[in-house]
Specification:
Number of helices: 5
Distance between the termini: 24 Å
Number of domains: 1
Length: about 130
C-alpha cells in the first residue's frame, strides 16, 4: 500500500471513528430523548433550552454525518469544536483533565480533521 493511500485510510478512520463516537454517545441520545434532554441541557448563553438543544443536535448529529460522508468536512468540524470548547471552558471549567478527558480527546480528533482535511476517500470531492 503506498503512503498516499495509507494517509487517506488513516484520515477516513480518524474522521469516521471520531464522528461515529460523537454521534452515538452525544448526538443520538439528544435526538431520541429530546424531551428529557430539554430538562438536562446546560444553557450557558441563556438562549433557551430548545435553541441550545437544537444547536447541540446540529453539531452532534448533522455535522458528524457530514464528516462521515466526507461532505463539507472542515466546515462541519467548526460547530463541533465550538460545542466542545463551550462545554469544556464555559459549562465545565472545574473539570480536571481526568474528568474532561473525553472532551479533550474529541477536541484533538476534530482539530486534527480540520487541519488535515478529509483525505481523498469522500462521498464527493466537490464538496469536501
Amino acid at each position: 500500500m503506498n503512503e498516499s493511500r495509507s494517509q487517506d485510510l488513516g484520515l477516513l478512520f480518524l474522521r469516521g471513528s471520531g464522528a461515529l463516537f460523537l454521534l452515538w454517545v452525544h448526538g443520538l441520545p439528544k435526538l431520541i430523548d429530546y424531551s428529557e434532554q430539554l430538562t438536562l441541557i446546560e444553557d450557558p448563553f441563556h438562549l433557551g433550552a430548545h435553541i441550545t438543544l437544537w444547536l447541540a443536535i446540529f453539531a452532534e448529529v448533522l455535522c458528524p454525518l457530514l464528516i462521515i460522508a466526507g461532505v463539507l468536512v472542515r466546515l462541519a468540524c467548526l460547530p463541533i469544536l465550538a460545542v466542545l470548547l463551550i462545554a469544556m471552558l464555559v459549562v465545565h471549567p472545574q473539570w480536571s483533565l481526568f474528568e474532561g478527558q473525553f472532551g479533550w480527546l474529541l477536541l484533538i480528533i476534530f482539530t486534527s480533521v480540520l487541519i488535515a482535511g478529509p483525505g481523498r476517500l469522500v462521498l464527493s470531492r466537490r464538496f469536501s
